[in-house]
Amino acid sequence: MDSEMVVHNGGCHCRNVRWRVRAPTSIVAWDCNCSDCFMRANTNFVVPAERFELLGDSRLFLTTYTFGTHAAKHTFCKVCGITSFYIPRSNPDGVAVTFRCVDPGTLTHVEIKYFDGRNWDSSYNQTGIASLSKVQNPPAEGSK
Question: What keywords are annotated for this sequence in UniProt (predicted)?
Fold first, then answer.
């Protein structure tokens, strides 16, 4: 999905956790049914870690929950409880950003895709989600 890259700002409900992320204006967000995402109704898009920046003293307001393999680092605000981003098991080198936590005005389109977190291994292999945390370099000038 090609679209203009912009800086999106966002964070939690009480605004103690704030961040910025460089991502397209049109994104693919993943609706996962694993036990954690399903209960939180978390739908997120994945970016390379170097495109995500936690702002100010936001780190002071974060806590982390892990379960199962402990590969995913589910961060949430200690004050309001909102998970505005986390480190996903599928992309430990990236960041999953809750698209509903992006401040209004920069997302132009959100396509929702399904990730079967209850059958994690097969969904991981079928979706290609692992590639989303890799920096995609534009083609060299003159190549197609």
Answer: Metal-binding, Zinc
